[in-house]
């Protein structure tokens, strides 16, 4: 728990971030981040597609505090959707509302999302709104509900460590949701603190969403969860086309391929861009074994 809290603290520390950027390559970021440019991201996605894996790409960036940065981030999302179409690769788009100005002006953020979703609709693509920390939860869900009155090609994520996860999930019946355990440090007032409690609720919301007939993107590297959901789906005759598994680029690559080879849709979350710091630190916080990437990189002689 100390290690997890430490890396979550670092993920939001601007002082450390400024000094860490130059260490990115040696910290092992290249193993889990698909370069800085759209071109590099598309090359990575194409290689994953060749292995039978589909993708969702995310231009890294969050906590934008001015209109110019928010508009630039939205334009990058539009360019990414256009690049996906031009490259003819199989990939969705993931994004964070804070990168589009949620903390600046809600209307600005909404207008940016409308522009992005219109572009996605043009290319018959889907956009996933990543869920952020608890302070942004209500604003994210409110905007999602507003957008879905016009667009059906947008969904979000539900975090199982939150007490309210099941209620939010039921309110979003029929929506394509990514179901995750949760990657931020939250108060005991709103979130489970013990891993076994989070795990139980995670399995619970997955099963509820599947039984509701809704599409579930099951985002986990936990092979025990994956096997339980496979068995559950077979028992309840839930077709493979109603769900997919998702994993992060660079993690458990052999398992990713095994799942795809079994005929399940396996989607890889492919991040790219210069603003890698917060994302990378949260990955270290999530799983202690991820830390070896950073340690090996720092002490590499290459």
Question: What does this molecule look like?
Answer:
With 302 residues, the chain is of the alpha/beta class. It has two domains: 1-33 and 280-302, no CATH class; 34-275, TIM Barrel, CATH 3.20.20.220. Helices cover 47% and strands 14% of the residues. The protein has an eight-stranded parallel beta barrel with strand order 1-2-3-4-5-6-7-8, surrounded by seven helices. Helix 7 (165-171) links the parallel strand 4 and strand 5 (177-180). It starts with a helix and ends with a helix. The relative contact order is 0.16.
What is the CATH architecture assignment of the largest domain? Alpha-Beta Barrel
**Estimated structural class:** alpha/beta
Into which percent range does the helicity of residues fall?
A: 40-55%
Say how many strands there are. Answer: 8
Q: Mind summarizing the main beta sheet?
A: 8 strands, parallel, barrel
CATH topology of the largest domain: TIM Barrel
Amount of beta strand? 5-15%
Shape type: globular
Question: What is Rg?
Answer: 18 Å
Residue runs with pLDDT of under 50 for 5 or more positions: 6-13, 15-20, 23-27, 293-302
Number of domains: 2
Number of helices: 12
Sheet with most strands: strand arrangement: 1-2-3-4-5-6-7-8
What would the average pLDDT be, to the nearest integer? 88
Distance between the termini: 32 Å
Order of helices and strands: HHHEHEHEHEHEHEHEHEHH
CATH C-level class of the largest domain is Alpha Beta
């Amino acid at each position: 728990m100390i290690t997890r809290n430490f890396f979550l603290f670092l993920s939001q520390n601007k002082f450390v971030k400024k000094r860490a950027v130059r260490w990115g390559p040696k910290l092992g970021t290249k193993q889990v981040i698909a370069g800085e440019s759209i071109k590099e991201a598309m090359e990575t996605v194409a290689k994953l597609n060749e292995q039978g894996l589909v993708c969702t790409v995310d231009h890294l960036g969050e906590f934008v505090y001015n209109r110019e940065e928010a508009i630039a981030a939205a334009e990058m999302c539009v360019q990414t959707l256009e690049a996906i179409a031009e490259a003819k690769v199989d990939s969705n788009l993931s994004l964070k509302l804070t990168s589009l100005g949620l903390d600046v002006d809600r209307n600005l953020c909404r207008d940016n999302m409308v522009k992005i979703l219109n572009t996605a609709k043009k290319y018959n693509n889907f956009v996933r709104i990543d869920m952020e920390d608890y302070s942004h939860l209500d604003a994210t869900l409110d905007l999602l509900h507003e957008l879905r009155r016009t667009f059906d090609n947008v969904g979000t994520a539900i975090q199982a460590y939150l007490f309210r996860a099941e209620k939010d999930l039921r309110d979003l019946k029929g929506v394509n949701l990514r179901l995750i355990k949760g990657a931020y440090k939250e108060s005991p007032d709103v979130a489970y603190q013990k891993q076994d409690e989070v795990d139980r609720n995670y399995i619970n919301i997955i099963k509820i969403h599947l039984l509701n007939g809704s599409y579930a993107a099951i985002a986990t590297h936990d092979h025990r969860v994956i096997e339980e959901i496979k068995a559950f789906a077979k028992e309840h005759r839930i077709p493979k086309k109603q769900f997919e598994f998702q994993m992060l680029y660079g993690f458990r690559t052999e398992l990713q391929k095994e799942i795809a080879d079994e005929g399940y849709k396996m989607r890889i979350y492919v991040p790219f861009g210069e603003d890698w710091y917060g994302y990378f630190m949260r990955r270290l916080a999530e799983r202690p074994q991820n830390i070896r990437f950073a340690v090996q990189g720092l002490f590499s002689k290459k």
